[in-house]
Amino acid sequence: MVLCGEGDCSVCLLAFSRAERVPRLLHCQHTFCQTCLEAMAARSAPGGVGPALSVRCPLCRRVTCVRRGLSLQEALWVDNALWEQIPSDREDDDDEDGIKDYREEARAATPRAQCLH
Questions:
Q1: HEC per residue, the chain
Q2: CA dihedral 14, 19, 23, 27 (to 10 degrees)
Q3: pLDDT of 117 strictly over 60
Q4: How high is the pLDDT of residue 53?
Q5: Mean pLDDT of 94-101
Q6: pLDDT in tens, 13-53
Q7: Of residues 71, 78, 98, 96, the one with CA closest to residue 31
Q8: Could you tell me which of 12, 26, 2, 6 has the C-alpha nearest to residue 86?
Q9: Percent of the chain beyond pLDDT 90?
Q10: CA distance 89 to 26
Q11: Is 82 within 8 Å of 64 (Cβ atoms)?
């Protein structure tokens, strides 16, 4: 049996992040990443798509309903306790392996030749 850490989504077993895998709370107070919640909501919506969404918690099976016209991002709170534990350098500048991409920082730090007229 594989157990996930406190900073990991228990569905995909990946670490929460501030960009793609934002930790969001269902009404039952269980937390999953936004990516997994969107995938679960898409499957539970009538016909696979639709304006009204519902998500069934994979742990306790309680259903969280989202009001018509709202996205999961608008309707569900971010788990602030987990959000504060996510290092800010794990944001958009990480690649798929979790290794920080220093190319942009290096470009910004490189002195540029000034045009003399």
A1: CCCCCCCECCCCCCECCCCCCCEEECCCCCEEEHHHHHHHHHHHCHHHCCCCEEEECCCCCCEEEECCCCCHHHHCCECHHHHHHCCHHHCCCECCCCCECCHHHHHHHCCCCCCCC
A2: -130
A3: no
A4: 82
A5: 42
A6: 999 999 889 999 999 999 999 999 999 886 555 555 555 68
A7: 78
A8: 6
A9: 42
A10: 26
A11: no
Give the list of residues 6+ apart from residue 49 with CB closer than 8 angstroms, or none. Answer: 42
Task: Name which of 21, 23, 30, 31 is nearest 90 in CA terms.
Answer: 21
d(CA 53, CA 38): 9
Taken in order 78, 81, 83, 84, the sign of the CA dihedral is positive
Separation CA 34–CA 19 (nearest Å):
10
Q: Which residue has the tokens 């997994």?
A: 36
For residue 88, which phi and psi values (nearest 5 degrees)?
-65, -20
